[in-house]
Write a structure and sequence with these properties.
Blueprint lengths: L14 H8 L26 H4 L9 E4 L12 H14 L8 E7 L6 H23 L6 E5 L20 E8 L1
Parallel strand pairs: 2-3
Antiparallel strand pairs: 1-4, 2-4
Helix pairs in contact: 1-3, 3-4
Amino acid sequence: MAPGSPAGAQEAPSLPNLVELLRPPGDRGNHGFSTTGPSTSRARPVADEAAARTTAPEGTAAAALALPFPSGSAALTPDAEKILEALGRALNSSELARYRFRIEGHTDTAGEAPANLVLSERRAATVRDYLVSRHGVAAARLEALGLGETQLLVQTPDATSEPRNRRVQVLNLGG
């Protein structure tokens, strides 16, 4: 984490790593960096290990982005916008332009489950709308889905604040 960054903030993933993470497994090539991660059997660039850890089904191209939303809010912070800049460029790249994507909002277990579900839906929709309005990604290529606390990246008991579970996950849905 960079000095002065808020807790839970993440450096913007690199464009090549996001493209590699979101490219379907059969469409991946060697682009000059390692694609093996220590905690997963799926091919993932080591440089963006946090983005490589997802709850996506095996064989699904996905990236998890720890966007630093204010607590209980779906408003994008400047740090979140920096991360989304890289995602917007990746989605518009020639390698990914033919694919559709699901943007999933996830929360931790702090707060009530119904409220977390609504919050995750708002966050996913905010990210989708940002990518459409700021990066010109076709709305038909993006669907937003809130999953609340139903797919925890890190298993925790109820009422636990866990920044790694507060994320937006992007899954490649195919062409």
